[in-house]
Amino acid sequence: MKQQADRNRTEREFEVGECVFVKLQPYKQLSLKQKGKNKLAPKFYGPYQINKKISQVAYGLSLREKSRVHNVFHVSCLKRALGDHQSAQTMLPSLDDEGRVILELEGILSTRERKLRRRTIKEYLVS
After folding, report:
1. CB neighbours (10 Å) of residue 59?
2. What's the number of domains the chain is made of?
3. Is residue 109 domain-resident?
4. Is 0.85 surpassed by the pTM of this model?
5. Burial of 53 (0-12, 13-18, 19+ CB in 10 A)
6. Domain that holds residue 72
7. DSSP H/E element including 3
8. Would 72 be classed as within a structural domain?
9. How many helices (H) and strands (E) does the chain have?
């Protein structure tokens, strides 16, 4: 049984100063819980730099000051960032005091009206 289980396992070890992506599942974490479906939300955020190695399986990351997520992660939640780290970056969502995600509206791009059964519904395209 151990041989079968070890086939899919990989040894992960990171050095201080390396960049990694953090795996978060907002629909499972209470502090990041949103209303609605989070099925298509990104699972990896980052890249973030490793500040310190706490043990073989725990690493401390340099997260934003506004993030309410603890900065120590298990090695199974980390994925090495390869290539150019600066091109694409997904940030951890900002949270209010109750733990809900703060959404910032830049502007309304267009509106349209749609009929649904007997009602007329207004739809907005926002940025």
Report:
1. 27
2. 1
3. no
4. no
5. middle
6. 2-95
7. helix 2-6
8. yes
9. 1, 7
